[in-house]
Specification:
alpha/beta; single chain; 416 residues; ten-stranded mixed sheet; two-stranded antiparallel ribbon
Length: 416
């Protein structure tokens, strides 16, 4: 009898939170000092890399997706990633699908990097917050200098080498009010795959949002602005992660991402030294599950601590249980709950924004989903209007003109 396979994902951090930039809103660059005080160099060893690769591939025998992030993962160097690919070839099974995804700030990309990433079929995510005037508000280097030009140069190099890439936009107080324009800015420049992630970080020692955090009403307006533009002209042409996820939930009855899934606790973080944590947003000492150099990965995945972590999601806030949008939202990310934890009275900070979006967008999303179920390309709103006009019978010469003028058609719009 074949054992049931429970899919999961690991995001590996080969250099912990070390980065060449100093983005004001980053939640991970403090992790080296916070988690590993006294350590001078953060770099995944060949021993950890090989053990991780072998165990991960063994646990996911059909399809295994390696994710690499930081900090800035490119600081691990080209040779590290060449060894990573060779390890995957060494330990993969016949017929096993193996993929790689890497998230970068783009500033370190050069021709050699892009040639390797393209040849090795990495999916590269580049963090860009919009055009320079909004990107450079919070995304600066350690000298305080702007980074947009270097990041966009990286995007152009990826395109030059035909590497597969997408753009990830973090929504913050500077760019969230302009997200609709930012969406069009990227689409007009040929970007076909976009992700948007709203930022919520707390002020030190409190539950109060920082000044750079995205506000709930900003999130709602942003989601609607992007949705309306996408529905009007970009259906089937541009992929937007939160819209793809909503359609997936409508069609298949479950989300494709952890944020809006009924249950999480299946997307782990692997640190440079083999430490496994429950989630990228909960890389705290209390959510360290163990170390795969000391305890087999399969045993770590059966840890009771992961069930305790899952309860942060499955033990819903009271306000969510009777919400009409529960099947689309499932309380959102536990990191966004205020207060964080399992208090029944807690609320998702972005609840107002989600409701604003779902209340207006769901009818149209359901209409689009029906086309997808039939295996058809959903028409844009503009195409629908043209199709409806074409289907309307042309008025006879002596009929009242359909424009509402009160005159006969032959003396109005049908004249000449």
């Amino acid at each position: 009898m074949t054992a049931e396979i429970h899919p999961f994902h690991i995001m590996a951090k080969p250099v912990c939170g070390v980065c060449n930039l100093d983005c004001q809103y980053c939640y991970y660059t403090m992790k080296p000092a916070e988690l590993y005080p006294g350590v001078a160099k953060f770099m995944m060893t060949d021993e950890v890399l090989a053990s991780y690769t072998r165990q991960y591939l063994a646990s996911m025998p059909l399809r295994c997706e390696f994710g690499w992030q930081g900090g800035e993962p490119l600081l691990a160097g080209k040779e590290f990633f060449r060894r990573a690919v060779e390890c995957q070839k060494q330990f993969r099974r016949e017929g096993q699908v193996v993929t790689n995804g890497l998230q970068t700030n783009g500033t370190l990309l050069d021709d050699e990097w892009c040639e390797f990433l393209a040849a090795s079929q990495f999916l590269v995510g580049v963090s860009l917050d919009g055009p320079a005037q909004v990107h450079d508000v919070f995304r600066r280097d350690k000298g305080g200098h702007p980074t947009w030009r270097r990041a966009w140069a990286g995007v152009e190099l990826l395109a030059k080498h035909r590497a597969e890439f997408n753009v990830l936009v973090t929504l913050n107080s500077a760019n969230a009010p302009h997200a609709g324009n930012i969406y069009r800015y990227f689409v007009n420049r040929g970007i076909q795959y976009l992700q948007f992630i709203q930022i919520l970080e707390r002020q030190a020692g409190t539950d109060e949002p920082t000044g750079f955090s995205c506000r709930p009403e900003q999130l709602g307006r942003w989601m609607l602005d992007v949705f309306e533009q996408w529905a009007a002209r970009d259906v089937g042409r541009v992929s937007v992660r939160f819209l793809d996820d909503a359609l997936h939930a409508i069609i298949y009855g479950r989300s494709a991402t952890c944020v809006h899934s009924e249950r999480c606790a299946a997307a782990y973080v692997l640190e440079w030294n083999g430490d496994l944590y429950a989630c990228d947003h909960f890389v705290y000492r209390e959510w360290r599950i163990g170390n795969l150099m000391e305890t087999p990965l399969e045993e770590l995945r059966r840890s009771p601590r992961l069930e305790e972590f899952a309860a942060l999601k499955t033990d819903l806030p009271a306000a969510c249980r009777e919400c009409e949008y529960l099947p689309m939202c499932w309380g959102g990310c536990p990191k966004h709950h205020r207060p964080m934890g399992r208090d029944p009275a807690r609320l998702n900070y972005f609840c107002e924004g989600y409701k604003m979006f779902f209340s207006r967008a769901l009818p149209e999303l359901r209409r689009i989903a029906e086309y997808i179920r039939r295996g058809e390309l959903p028409p844009t709103v503009g195409d629908e209007a043209a199709r409806a006009a074409a289907a309307t019978p042309k008025p006879k010469r002596n009929d009242l003109c359909p424009c509402g003028s009160g005159r006969k058609y032959k003396h109005c719009c049908g004249r000449g």
